[in-house]
Each structure stands twice: as C-alpha cells, then as structure tokens.
Amino acid sequence: MDKSKGKNIVIVILVITTIIASSLALYFGLVKNKQLKNQNSEYEAKIDELNSILDKNHEDDNDKEAESIENTNAYTRKIIDSNSKCLNQERVDIDGFVTAKIESENYASVSLEKSDSVGFSYSLGNLGKIFPSFADSNAREGIFTNVEIPFQGKKVADVFIKGFGQSYGYETVFFLMEDGTVEYMPVIHAIRNNNFKSYGTVEGVKDVVTIESFTVGNKNGGGGYTAVFAITSNNEYYELNTLIEKADFYNFYQ
User: Fold this and answer.
1) What gap in Å lies between CA 68 and CA 51, rounded to an integer?
2) How many other CB atoms are found less than 10 A from the CB of residue 228?
3) Rounded to two decimals, what is the model's pTM?
4) What is the four-CA torsion angle of 72, 74, 75, 77, rounded to 10 degrees?
5) Cα distances (Å, whole numbers) of residue 191 to 13, 161, 171, 251, 253
6) What is the pLDDT of residues 204-234, one digit of tens each?
7) Residue from 160, 155, 149, 161 nearest 179 by CA
C-alpha cells in the first residue's frame, strides 16, 4: 500500500473518531445538562413549595395572634339594631330602630347609642336633695339636663355609672374603650364645673371586658364598702376606686 494513502486513511479514521467522540460528548453533555436543569427545576419547585408552606404557617400564626388579641379585648356588649335578626318575633312597630344602654343613679344617668359619643343626663333638683350646695329654687326634681360627651378618634365599647365608698358623691362614669382600657368622669366634679368629658385613662388598667360594683366586707363580719371592679378576659380584676379616689376631683365637700 502506498504510504501516502495509508496516512490519509489514518487521518480520516482519526477525524471520524474525533467527530464521533465530540458528538457523543456533546450528546451526553446535553443529556447531563438537561438532567441538571430538571433537577434544578425540581429543587426550585421543592423550595417554592417549602417557602409557600412557611409563608402559610406565618400567615396562620399572624391570624391566630390577631384573633387572640381581638378576643382578648373583645367587649361584652354588642350593638343591636334593625339589621340584627330577632329569633322569636318579627319587629314591625319600629322601622330602623337602634338600642341604647342606660345606666342611672338617683340624680344622673349615662347612655350609649354610638361608639364615638356618650349621652349624660343629670338633675340638679334631685342632686340638691343629697347635696344642699346644689339646691336651686328653679331646679325641680325629675327634670334632667342632657349633654353629649364626644370621643374623637376613639371608640367606646360600653358605659357604666358606679358609686363607691360609703356615701353619695363618688359616683363616676366609667367608659370601657374598645381596646380594653378604661377612662372615667367624676360626676359631681363635672356637674359643678359644667365640664363634661373624659378625665383621662385609668393608669395601668388594660384587657377589661366589663365593669361591676360589689359590696366588699370582711368575711368574718364587720364594716364594708362599695367597690368598682374592672374585670378582665381572664376573670381577674382591678379595683378601680382605689386607683382614682385620691384625685382632687373627689374633694366634692370643699
């Protein structure tokens, strides 16, 4: 065989084997790359799935925390109006009615119809029978003056008028706010100074759902007094009168 022909055949074989090797390398490289892409896609899908689960759990935790906070400060009184469903009768006598809560003492009362305003009524005629300094020849018993106590930017959940101690004069309007705090108005001071408003938040009191008055006495007998308890969602309580009675607002004999 001619040496040049043999050399050419070898070169051709080498070229062919090189092409085949390159093609195989390219093929297997493409296959491997596709496998890697598929694996990466699977990994990314798994990561997305895990992130989605984590996000959902985080949202659930936030929802539960928000629900817990909402339930903690949930107040007991609900507004009943014409949009509410009555379970035992059809109300046809009043169209578009709304209810109001009214609490009263001998000479004053407080009412709540909407969350940003509280109604307060008082009778100088009735009050003059208890405190002669309020007596007015023009004031008759049973005649009440009505005023409005606005709450701008705040919401009142419930209202109470409660006396405490052992005598008249400590009557106080307590405003249970929607956030579970309590504000108050000393009644005698407000009437005497014609200044009807919230006199501030009772410091340190929170998470309250209702306010009640109780007679407190020694279980073995003896004296007692009327106290006002702010009861929390955990059935714990604050004795409100001890937190406010030392204020100058209650120097009503001066």
Assistant:
1) 25
2) 27
3) 0.65
4) -150
5) 116, 14, 11, 13, 14
6) 999 999 998 888 776 666 667 888 999 998 8
7) 155
